[in-house]
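Consider a protein example.
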Amino acid sequence: MILQREDIPNLISILRIFLTIPVVWMLLIRRFDIALVLFAIAGVSDGLDGFLAKHFGWQSKLGGLLDPMADKVLLVSSYVCLALLGLIPTLLMVLVILRDLVIVTGALVYNFRIEELEAEPSLISKFNTFAQIVLVIAVVLDQGWVGLPPGLLQLMVWVVFASTIASGVDYVWVWSRRAAGLSGKK
């Protein structure tokens, strides 16, 4: 198989998935400095693959799956590590994973039972992803480079907790109503 320029965004997403392995390892051995640098590289790669796909028209169905999958693999893995290390509440990790499982399951059911799914993340979902990323960065920073003010991490945990619930409920509500509306037309 010969790779084309159009494959570059997909390759970047695949590399981001593999970058999760050293991020997880560095978190687990408490090398938060290296984990933070790798997490930043993953963030830059996420912006780069999106820019290339949109700017050059290199968007693909595969890329539409790989990009969010790479993001979720990195975030969920980071949340599992931080919970295992006792740096975030286990309940928050479970909630983040449960929300993603509900969304992925719902998307698969919708795609195969109702119609092909072409979903854009909602505003609350984008905020939730942003808040999840900021919390990971803040926790890692707090472990070495910058001591955060007391209470700030706890506030951020509550923001992620609330936005995760709100985002999950929003997805279920919107897509259930959309599915009900479409099934009523058939």
Notes: The chain has one domain: 5-180. The mean pLDDT is 88.
